[in-house]
Amino acid sequence: MQIVSATHAKQNFAAILDQSQREPVRIQRHERDIAVLVSAAEYESIRQMRAQELIRLSDEMGRYAESQGMTDELLEQLLADEG
């Protein structure tokens, strides 16, 4: 991963955009990471992985809740008690 200063990124934005199509580019200000520029395809891949992980965790928690006696009826009752 290429690491560039924010000043360099600003002065060479077109080249940094091109570079980000090949690999992520880490942008630093005062030697601290402030951003990572990635291609649109890479961003979409990351977004899809996060969505899949959320679905997996939700399914896992659903199975755990069922194993502990949670039912749709009980959930409806608990939610109605909140309102």
Provide tags for this entry.
83 residues; alpha+beta; 3-stranded mixed sheet
Q: Give me the side-by-side strand order of the main sheet.
A: 1-2-3
User: Helical content, roughly?
Assistant: 55-70%
Net shape: elongated
Indicate the proportion of strand residues: 15-25%
Query: How is the biggest beta sheet arranged?
Result: 3 strands, mixed
Low-confidence parts: none
Structural class by helix and strand composition: alpha+beta
| pLDDT averaged over residues | 95
Number of helices: 4
SSE order, one letter for each helix or strand: EHHEEHH
Q: Number of DSSP strands?
A: 3
Structure explained in plain terms:
There is one protein chain. The chain contains 4 helices and 3 strands, in the order βααββαα. By secondary structure, the chain is of the alpha+beta class. A 3-stranded mixed beta sheet has the order 1-2-3. The longest helix is centred in the middle third of the chain and has 28 residues.
